[in-house]
Every structure is written in structure tokens, then in C-alpha cells.
Design brief:
This protein folds into three domains: 75 residues, RNA polymerase II/Efflux pump adaptor protein, barrel-sandwich hybrid domain (OB fold (Dihydrolipoamide Acetyltransferase, E2P), Beta Barrel), CATH 2.40.50; 58 residues, Dihydrolipoamide Transferase (Irregular); 229 residues, Chloramphenicol acetyltransferase-like domain (Chloramphenicol Acetyltransferase), CATH 3.30.559. It is of the alpha+beta class and 420 residues long. It is 28% helix and 25% strand. The termini are far apart.
């Protein structure tokens, strides 16, 4: 008897999904609850499991758009499980063949030569033949500037000679010089959703952006002093995101309209900070939510950030992970962005943009000094957030970051002592 495997319901508003890939193929025997496919909705990626053990027959191709309830595969649970291949059982020691008693070949001698870009150990390893490796080393060629044509992406002698013959010119991956080729690729459900929501945010909000800059030296000094002890105590690294998330949570409590959004003809305020963290993945930008940041410790925030980032990279985020945020933080600085105007993540009313840390000369106590500075940007919906509130929010975030002790008590210790 064949058991139909259908696209499951993944959310009230989701009517179709995209088949990302088959983990198991037609004709393979699958065990019950074994993952057989990965699907992508407009919000998240999820897995499909086998409901019974049996032989799989697929009914859709990778990249197909499917409706909820469509049959994507069937499993014949009456098919016998294939027997283990002969010799799969453990062989007694006294029956080991003579060939198996011979010393194993040295894998280091048999694997292809590996060279690193610019000769640095940190560069990505690139496979090359011994002759190609020798030419690369002798001529000081950057392997990343060489287009491989050998088996399994291996660089061969002709590839290096071609790169030397045309310095400063490099074909696109898999192409050739002076190529005029074009490629069409179907948009995924996630990319379509990102496109629709960005256009919707631009067209339906009165979006403005205000800027400021932060002296990151106090935070960098704290990280340098305590990062090893912090990781030893909590099992997670001390990054910048926990400082920014905690600073935003405090500022959101003081300026509640930045933490609110419009719901019909009402303004919905939140007495908590569920902060969405923008995470870049190969399939697009996702914004998983960290719940109740105001109630988390620094280690709690770091662990939550690490967890959602890992789930995003592994395509394990659920619809629940991506819904319900009240404010968003995005960090373009990790890619080198100096300054930008981030787009609001609907239905929220504001988003904070972090940027690259650059050493710049600033005036400090009448002296010109070099400090690690970061531009920060707050894009906000002017329908609900006024200029005074947006600027004051950003100034408060700056104050908290430049005086990290304020993250603990939210007030200047001296002013608290003097009851000012």
C-alpha cells in the first residue's frame, strides 16, 4: 500500500511553498520519520519526514512551486527492506583478507596539492596539480585569480598559464573571457516575500532616517579585558550585538512609540522588547526574533543570537522564530558598510542600522585623538514616531554604548548619588 506524502500546513497565511531539494531520491528505502525533502515557504525553511518506512517515489522536482496539501511523494510501506550488502558484517580478526592487512596508503601522498590564496594560512584552500602549484608558488599568482578547468574544480597547468597571459583579467566563475552569457533563475518564495515586503515598507510608511556616531572604544576595551573570562563562564563569545540589543531595550522602554506599530486605526504599544536580528543567509535576509531582550542577561542575549544565527544558516528557522518582533537591528558593518539607510521591517515602526568600525580623528577634551567610530542609523515611520522621539532614542542608545556602566543601572552613578 502506498502512503501519500503531502505538503503540510505551515501557517495560516501561507498557501504555497517551494521544493528546495530532495534529501532522498526515488527508489531509495527510507525509515519512518527520516527526512526526505526540504521545503521553503515565504517565511522559513522546513523539512518533510517519512510517515512510514518503505520505498520512496517522488512526484515533484526541485524548484517546483507547490500548494499546501499537494502530494509530493509516496511511500510503498509493503516493499521489503533491502538486505545489507555482503561483507557489511564485521569480519572476525582471524578472517581478515591479506589485502586488508597491508598498511593503508598515506592520504597526504595521494590527495591533490592544495594551495592557499596569497600564501596565507587563513585563505580558502584551493586544489591544484603539482605542476600548477609549482608555477603558482614561483610566479606569486593568487589562486583566486585562476579559473580552474580540471576535474572537480582542480587548477591545472594551462589555467595558471592563461592567468599569467592575461593579468588583471578574470572570467566569471564557470565562464570565459569576453563572455556575453546570461542566466535566468527562478525567484524563491523567500526572495519574492523579501521583495514584496520591502516595496510595501517604502510605499506604505512615511520613512525617515536619522544618524549619529558612537565611540566604540569603551565597549572594545571591555571585550578585550573580559572576553576570555566571559566565554569560560558562559560558553559563548562576547560580541557587539549584546551591547546594542541591551541598549536598544532600555531606550525602547523610555521611548515607547519606537517600540510600537500601527494596527488599523490604533497604535499598539508593547511593554517588552522582542528584537529582530537581521541574519544574512545564502537564500536571502531573514530576521529571527529574540524574545524579551529587556529580561535577558548579556550572556542570554549572546546565546540567543548564536542560536538563531545557527538556525538561519542551517535553514532550521520556523515561522514562530520569524514573527512577533517589535524592533529590528541590522548590522551592515560585517560586510564593510560605512553608512546606510535601513528599510523598516513591517509592521514595526523602526530599525537600527549598525555599520563598520573605522578609526577616525575626533575632538575629545579639546584634543584631536584617534578613536574607533561607528555610524548608527535609525529609520523610523514618521506617522507614529516624531522627530524628537527618534533623535532622542538614538542619542540615548549612543549614551548607553559610550558609557556601558549605564546598561546596568540606566543612570549616571554620580547623578544617582547626588539624587539629580
Amino acid at each position: 500500500m502506498a502512503i501519500d506524502i503531502k505538503v503540510p500546513t505551515v501557517g495560516e497565511s501561507i498557501s504555497e511553498v517551494t521544493l528546495l531539494k530532495w534529501v532522498k531520491n526515488t527508489g531509495e528505502y527510507v525509515e519512518r520519520d527520516e527526512v526526505i525533502a526540504e521545503l521553503e515557504s515565504e517565511k522559513a525553511t522546513f523539512e518533510v519526514n517519512a510517515e512510514k518506512a518503505g520505498v520512496l517515489t517522488t512526484n515533484a522536482a526541485e524548484g517546483d512551486t507547490l500548494n499546501i496539501g499537494d502530494t509530493i511523494a509516496s511511500i510503498d510501506d509493503t516493499a521489503p527492506k533491502p538486505e545489507a550488502a555482503p561483507g557489511a558484517e564485521e569480519t572476525p580478526a582471524d578472517k581478515v583478507p591479506e589485502e586488508a592487512k597491508k598498511p593503508a596508503p598515506d592520504p597526504e601522498k595521494e590527495k591533490p596539492a592544495v594551495v592557499s590564496g596569497n600564501g596565507s594560512a587563513g585563505a580558502a584552500a584551493i586544489k591544484a596539480t603539482p605542476v600548477a602549484s609549482a608555477i603558482i608558488a614561483d610566479k606569486g599568482v593568487n589562486p583566486k585569480d585562476v579559473t580552474p578547468s580540471g576535474y572537480s574544480g582542480k587548477i591545472v597547468k594551462e589555467d595558471v598559464l592563461a592567468a599569467l597571459a592575461s593579468p588583471g583579467r578574470k572570467a566569471f566563475a564557470g565562464g570565459e573571457l569576453y563572455s556575453r552569457n546570461e542566466r535566468a533563475q527562478k525567484m524563491t518564495s523567500l526572495r519574492k516575500t523579501i521583495s514584496r515586503r520591502l516595496v510595501e515598507a517604502k510605499n506604505t510608511t512615511a520613512m525617515l532616517t536619522t544618524f549619529n556616531e558612537v565611540n566604540m572604544k569603551p565597549i572594545m576595551d571591555i571585550r578585550a579585558k573580559y572576553k576570555d573570562k566571559f566565554k569560560e563562564a558562559h560558553g559563548v563569545g562576547l560580541g557587539f550585538m549584546s551591547f546594542f540589543a541591551k541598549a536598544c531595550a532600555i531606550a525602547l522602554a523610555e521611548w515607547p512609540s519606537v517600540n510600537a506599530y500601527i494596527d488599523g486605526d490604533q497604535i499598539l504599544f508593547h511593554d517588552y522588547a522582542d528584537i529582530s536580528i537581521a541574519v544574512s543567509t545564502p537564500r536571502g535576509l531573514t530576521v529571527p526574533v529574540i524574545r524579551n531582550v529587556e529580561s535577558l542577561s548579556m550572556a542570554g542575549v549572546e546565546k540567543a543570537v548564536l542560536d538563531v544565527a545557527k538556525k538561519a544558516r542551517d535553514s532550521k528557522l520556523t515561522a514562530e522564530d520569524l514573527t512577533g518582533g517589535t524592533f529590528t537591528i541590522t548590522n551592515g558593518g560585517v560586510f564593510g558598510s560605512l553608512i546606510s539607510t535601513p528599510i523598516i521591517n513591517l509592521p514595526q515602526s523602526a530599525i537600527l542600522g549598525m555599520h563598520n568600525i573605522v578609526e577616525r580623528p575626533i575632538a575629545e577634551n579639546g584634543q584631536v585623538v584617534i578613536r574607533p567610530m561607528m555610524y548608527i542609523a535609525l529609520s523610523y515611520d514618521h506617522r507614529i514616531v516624531d522627530g524628537r522621539e527618534s533623535v532622542s532614542f538614538l542619542v540615548r542608545v549612543k549614551e548607553l554604548l559610550e558609557n556601558p556602566t549605564l546598561l546596568l543601572i540606566q543612570q549616571d552613578p554620580i547623578k544617582t548619588l547626588l539624587e539629580l
